[in-house]
Amino acid sequence: MASPAGSGTSGMSENVAGLLCYVLGWVTGLIFYFIDKRPFVRFHAAQSMVVFGGLTIIRIVCGMLFLTGTGFHMGLGLLWLVSLVGFILWILLMVKAYQGDKFRVPIAADLADQIFGKS
pLDDT tens digits for 55-85? Predict the structure, then answer.
């Protein structure tokens, strides 16, 4: 059932909107943060931006280490580990949001609350 225009919702159920906050990482988190004003969705959107935005920055740093001759193996290992953690978090967070759970990633959820306000 679609919501009336201007009501501050994305026109879908909260759990589906929460799941979609994670689909494309921080990008969909950013989109849903601005189009949906429901606290459950905003929480997942903010957490998505912090978790996957942070992992993107870490991947960039690991990639820089990977490109330098001195940190080649260390950069490659860290890049693989960060990618694995990101994939596991991606699946876990989508499942938890779809189940209607407000699963909080340690540190990241608190940081999201500080940056974007409590949802």
Answer: 999 888 777 777 666 666 666 778 888 899 9
Structure tokens at 38: 């429901």
Q: What is the pLDDT of residue 104?
A: 93
Round to whole Å and give the CA distance between 37 and 40.
9
Token representation of residue 24: 């494309």
Instruction: List CB contacts of 26: < 8 A, sequence separation 6 or more.
Output: 48, 49, 51, 52, 53, 56
pLDDT of residue 4: 45
Cβ–Cβ under 8 Å, residues 40 and 63? no
Residue ranges in 1-119 assigned as alpha helix (H): 14-23, 26-35, 39-67, 72-98, 108-116
Give the residue among 49, 8, 1 at the shortest CA–CA distance from 28. Answer: 49
> Among residues of the chain, what percentage have pLDDT more than 90?
60
